[in-house]
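[Automated response] Your request has been received and processed.

Submitted sequence:
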Amino acid sequence: MKKKDAEVYRKKLIKEKERLLLDLQNLDKNSLHVTSQEGSGNLSGYGTHLADVATDMYEQEKSLSFMNNEEFLLQEVEDALQKIDKNKYGNCEACGVEISLKRLDVEPHAKFCMDCKTEEEEKKKSSVANGSLQKNIRKRRG
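Generated structure:
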């Protein structure tokens, strides 16, 4: 990949990294440390209804899931930035072929070309399907 192109993607990746860090900060601040009592302004000390507690727990779990996804993407972005520094950015990790600029425009942290990404997703689907099939077989036998 040309250095000029790599610099364009570096800027995109840095912008994405800043967005992800801000999202993580907001999720942490707004979701994980505020209960429904605090959020509604009810700080009276009276017990909270069980359904409210369950809702708080659900919302925190949802926030943790979002945070995990954002952290995963952040790591992908940081890996891509390191590849730019090492002049290894833009090549498929599976086959070594140059990833199309069209793909990198959509997903600048892409690790695989479209062919290898499609193959990887098919393997995952097959693995999940086989796992479900094995569970069903064990249930029938047991």
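Summary generated for your ticket: The helical segments are 3-31, 36-40, 50-85, 101-106, 114-141. The first helix runs from residue 3 to 31.
If you did not submit this request, please reply to this message.
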